[in-house]
Write a structure and sequence with these properties.
The protein is an alpha/beta fold. Helices cover 34% and strands 22% of the residues. The strands form 5 sheets. The chain has a 6-stranded mixed sheet, with helices on both faces. It has a 5-stranded parallel sheet with strand order 15-14-13-12-16, sandwiched between helices. α14 links the parallel β14 and β15 (358-361).
Length: 393
């Protein structure tokens, strides 16, 4: 069993947030930092992450008595828009009624400002809502990220409120060495994102550090760079583990909302690829009620191409997008380790995966039986809990 370190949750997220606002990292208290400001923009996460409401309420309690205008923007990146019911469930009506709430649209050319290009060639196109406000607050969570090293902070802007062409250009860098979970220094996606947000500087960051069951183990606030760095160090201590190779690797991303679709559920393949033996089997678990997710190219490539063709075509920058990247993540263990990928999922998702390079199964028992036919009954088995976050050495 490969799993995160056991952690204890803070007693009250709102109390912990209040304390972090009064005693921030590398910054005056929030009440002082927003003095003489007029409009505050809060960037936060969508329903593929835990609800940020307990973090948001104390911030609004500090900002709104000063008579400042507040906009909360859901930093969707290239995720699909949330429905009205999902917004209510995620934020709560009390919070929605307190402020203007909008959702980013990465494909609406009219709402994006062109602010140049990064040294790696990523166009700096960002939602113009940032120009309507004079104080930008990021509110989210820090956990290991299989692309940018760790989530949170600068990711609320890139990819959070970036144009789809900017997001694709940044994520194309995943093909370079260093783009891996738990790594910041030398990670091209992270470094490109940092350069991107220099044109859209965040003034404040409040972030919760997540434990294995989404419990909040710490809340940090203050200077965005210093706060994010300290949160990443805490997160690393929870999720970094030593692991040996196994014949069969079972990986679960942690249930809802992390297996809401295959775009999210595929993330469990990343650490599994690292520890599966050559010729072994990866068994991925995920319900995927929303099936493929928002990336049509993802479905198209997985259902019509071989893993070898995917691995080759994904290198073509003109053909690359997030859907292509998703197809490549699933193809990688097959191409690099001659592994078999079995996906235990819902009946509808299983039907979608028929005749693809990902083999569907309706139960873990059936998947194990299939795996043992490939590697033998005396095989070694590793189970990776909370696989989307594990940093395996």
């Amino acid at each position: 069993m490969i799993e995160p370190k056991s952690t204890s949750a803070v007693e009250s997220v709102e109390v912990a947030t209040d304390k972090s606002l009064d005693k921030p990292i590398g910054s005056p208290p929030l009440s002082e930092a927003i003095a003489e400001k007029s409009r505050v923009l809060i960037l936060t996460v969508d329903a593929t992450r835990p609800s940020p409401a307990p973090l948001l309420r104390p911030i609004l309690d500090n900002v709104q008595p000063l008579g400042l205008g507040v906009t909360v923007c859901v930093s969707l990146g290239r995720h699909r828009r949330m429905t009205g019911d999902e917004l209510i469930e995620h934020f709560g009506m009390e919070l929605i009624d307190r402020c203007r709430l909008i959702q980013h649209d990465p494909v609406d050319d009219k709402i994006h400002k062109d602010l140049g290009v990064t040294s790696r060639g990523t166009p700096i196109k960002v939602n113009e809502v940032v120009e309507e406000h004079d104080f930008i607050v990021g509110v989210g969570f820090v956990e290991p990220s299989y692309l940018a090293g760790f989530s949170g902070g600068r990711k609320l802007i890139m990819p959070g409120i970036a144009h789809h062409t900017s997001i694709d250009a940044n994520h194309y860098l995943l093909l370079e060495e260093g783009a891996q979970i738990g790594r910041l220094e030398g990670n091209p996606i992270h470094e490109d994102a940092l350069e991107f947000v220099e044109k859209v500087p965040m003034d404040w960051l409040t972030c919760g550090v997540l434990g294995a069951s989404d419990e909040m183990v710490a809340v940090l606030s203050g200077d965005p760079h210093k706060t994010h760095a300290e949160a990443c160090a805490l997160s690393r201590g929870i999720y970094e583990r030593e692991a040996e190779e196994s014949d069969i690797v079972i990986a679960t991303v942690g249930g809802h909302p992390y297996d809401c679709d295959l775009v999210q559920a595929k993330k469990g393949v990343v650490p599994a690829t690292k520890v599966v033996r050559r010729g072994g089997v990866i068994i991925l678990l995920g319900a995927c009620p929303d099936l493929w997710g928002a990336e049509e190219t993802f479905r198209e490539w997985v259902t019509t191409m071989s893993p070898q063709d995917v691995a080759e075509k994904v290198k073509d920058k003109d053909a690359f997008n997030l859907g292509a990247h998703g197809a490549n993540i699933l193809a990688k263990p097959i191409v690099e380790k001659d592994a078999t990928v079995i996906f235990v999922t819902s009946r509808k998702m299983a039907k979608e995966l028929r005749d693809t390079y990902v083999h569907p199964a309706r139960s873990t028992k059936a998947a194990l039986a299939e795996a043992e036919k490939i590697v033998g009954r005396d095989s070694t088995v590793s189970v990776i809990r909370c696989a989307r976050r594990m940093i395996l050495q």
